[in-house]
Amino acid sequence: MRILRILICGAGVLVALSAAVFAGTGPHTLGSVSSVTALENGIRILTTSGGTEEITALRDDVVRVRASTGASLPEDASWAVLEKSRTASVPVTPENTAVTVGFRTQSLHIEIDRKTLCLTVRNLDGRILQQDAQPLRLEDSAFRIAEAMPADEHYYGLGDKTGPTDRRGRAFSLWNTDAYHFQESTDPLYKSIPFFMSFRAGTAVGVFLDNTFRSSFDFGAESATSYSFGAADGPVDYYIFPEPAPRAVLETYAWLTGKPPLAPRWSLGFQQSRYTYTPESRLMEIADRLRADRIPADALYLDIDFQDRNRPFTINTKDFANLGEALAKLHTMNFHVVAITDLHIAHAPDQNYAPYDSGVAGDQFVHNPDGSVFVGPVWPGPAVFPDFTRTQTRAWWGTLYKDFIALGFDGFWNDMNEPSIFKTPTSTMPLDVVHRIDEPGFRTRTAPHAEIHNVFGMENSRATYEGLLKLEPNTRPFVLTRASYAGGQRYAATWTGDNTSTWNHLRESGPQLKSLGLSGFGYSGADVGGFAGTATADLLTKWLEVGAFEPIDRDHTEKGTGDQEPWVGGSEQEDIRRRFIEARYRLMPYLYTLAEETSRTGIPMMRPLFLDYPEAATDKHPMDNDVDNEFLLGHDLLVAPSPFPDTPDAYSVEFPTAEWFDYWTGERVEPAPRNPHPDPNAPRSPAELVPLATDVHPTLDALPVYVRGGAILALQPLVQSTQETPHGPLELHVYAGSDCRGSLYTDDGSSFAYKRGEYLRQSFTCFVTAECLTIQLSAREGSYTPWWKEIRVVVYGWQPRHGTVRMDGATNPKVERVGNTVLFTIPASSAAATLEIE
Fold it and tell me: Fewer Cβ atoms within 10 A, N terminus or C terminus of the chain?
């Protein structure tokens, strides 16, 4: 007979409901501490059940937890965590008592209960940051980790998920899935990113479960006092990294799993796509219309119909008889063209289909358990699938792009890589399909698809990215992937998949993109206008307005739907849409500066408010829980689309601080407490001053966008593509206020010359007094020479007494006063400069 002991952890105390006896594969724990070995960077515990647990410090603020039912731990390898981070180590100080074993770093106390093995993480002041609610639970090959869930704690992350940004109260599954027509309740979706951040009273803790099997996360759907996470199989291997602020958590996650490479500038421009622009003349017609109507754009896409019988790396020569010439002409028009290259290679023996023939010759495809090649139906019909867990297969895949690069394609789109397979009960490969792992850092072995499924799409995009780098070593690749895993941001941008042309999906896209940004994918977007179905004219207009302020701005729709280009619906709608796309291009210096920040720090371009303003609310709860429709574009722009964009109802915009300007008019916004005191002259407590809000009455042609008081934004004259050199001065828009600062980064936008110092970085600050506004421009860093010769300074929120400007002590011409702005122009220089306006 087997008696199960139920253990509850709390403050290092064990509550036992019965004696502990377990055997076999039923529910059990690892037992208690049997012996402890001190390590230089942590401890190793042998348990009474014969198991092993190891807790180590990679940094003073990063702890790794590994456990096994046997005397040794599983293979120490990872698809997600960078080797230099995974093998990092800091010395620790042992801390053992009669009740606990553990250690101390320079910032954390780590305690493991001797009886239950429950883990508690505290800061040096003794505050509990994370605490096991129960011992590690094991059953067959699965495991579950339960953590205490304070009533005021919130949870963010997991990447590609629908619904509110805060995950509290819901449960999720991570299993990459082709979720065509997904809705707000659909789960799982296309990407599996087992990373989340807890946030409580201004303090954040990152947790990353490095397990590629199907996993699940329950943030209080089952229990009101604990949350849990675990996987169906695979290693117990997770990281805990408490930080004083949410931004620091994301920077640490980027330290673990990598940062996105700096995107080519053209990928930040407007992108026009559909399934599919066929024939070739239709593609050219779209390009001509964009230029004729003066709608700025940088990229056009070709979906699968440009291929011969939907076979990847082929061309449908009937409909695209002169594709090379067309691509060359599009280049002269400053367009980049992105081609889809799905991973399903047509099963076409003896048909002179080179990708299949070379793949068979090199044994590059995934196998069935009996050793035969796995074949599954997708767009080309019966198809085979590259075994991307092999280094040599990824290298072979990269060579397939050689002819497409030579033809003139500029970017590539890896779709259907969950992998999606038709006419099967699971819509993907059987779980026992065999992958061969032949990868530095891994033991050479085979693995079932159940283990590889969630990383398959990431390794597909990795093969594409690395292959393009090898073919063009000095050109930044642009890869767009639908499926991925943690760390996939190192290889590709992403989008939210096959959404629908509905108002609810416009509303849903904001929280989805914020979540992807919080999960490593700082370059992400949604199909603007919706993929499935035909957008109404008003829906397309509103979506193009919002898309203009998102990292990837791609208008895309499916086969059989109505046209979805910016001119659809008449000139009035087109004029509104053009104005917002133009605004994006005017903001390109700011956008590109944000893109570089993302590549350097891992901080996303599009952000929830709590990321930059974690203490905005008096009780330090995340503001996004109240206004999940709002988002930040960088630190300085707040975008506030309607929470219900299909209704004419007025709504409230909340601000994290008191100083903001209307981006469109430059007028100072005066946010007020939502519930003002009945006596306006009465003193008010800080709690009565927040949230600060203003009411908005929506109209079709407007999107509320606000600039932080104290921001200094770099803008440029309007261009029709990022390849076009702006004519005129660079503009510095200065919004007078506290914490007045800004920055600018630029380079050639396409090569890796910036890694050799060929870039420009400059910072700006300003100080306001009653008599003078002082603006300081730092000396430029880097050797890159920019396009501008002059700088046009535009000041909002401050008026000079005399209307004079001194630059480094020398008096310049008087300033101009236009409406609520002050303007003047100075020569551009690589040297530092001080401007004094009186």
Answer: N
Q: How far apart are CA 91 and CA 105, in angstroms?
A: 7
Largest CA distance in the chain: 94
The residues carrying an active-site annotation are: 415, 418, 498
**Residues 641, 543: contact at Cβ < 8 Å?**
no
Rg (Cα) of the chain, in Å, rounded? 28
Tokens of 67: 């456990």
DSSP 618: T
Residue keyed to tokens 């994006």: 584
Residues 281 and 401 in one domain: yes
**From CA 538, how far away is CA 547, in angstroms rounded?**
14
Residues 523 and 440 in one domain: yes
Distances (CA, A) of 181 to 172, 303, 501, 565: 18, 18, 10, 21
Structural domain contains residue 202: yes
Q: Are 535 and 566 in contact (CB under 8 A)?
A: no
Tens of pLDDT, residues 480-516: 999 999 999 999 999 999 999 999 999 999 999 999 9
- In 3D space, the residue among 817, 814, 818, 812 whose CA is nearest the CA of residue 834 turns out to be 812
Which CATH number is 687's domain given?
Answer: 2.60.40.1180
Distance CA 145, CA 704 (A): 43
What's the whole-model pTM score?
0.96
φ/ψ of residue 470, rounded to 5? -70, -35
6 pLDDT higher than 50: no
Mean pLDDT of 581-600: 98
User: What distance in Å separates the CA atoms of residue 254 and residue 488, rounded to the nearest whole number?
Assistant: 11
Least Cα distance to 252 among 237, 241, 239, 238 occurs for 241
506/572 same-domain check: yes
Neighbouring residues of 274: CB distance < 8 A, sequence distance ≥ 6: 301, 303, 556, 557, 558, 559, 561, 564
**375 shares a domain with 313:** yes
- 739, part of any domain: yes
Answer yes or no: do 174 and 38 share one domain.
Answer: yes
Amino acid at 682: A
| Residue ranges making up the domain that contains 790 | 728-837
pLDDT over 80 (residue 263): yes
Q: Which of 599, 483, 499, 557 is nearest to 193 (CA)?
A: 483
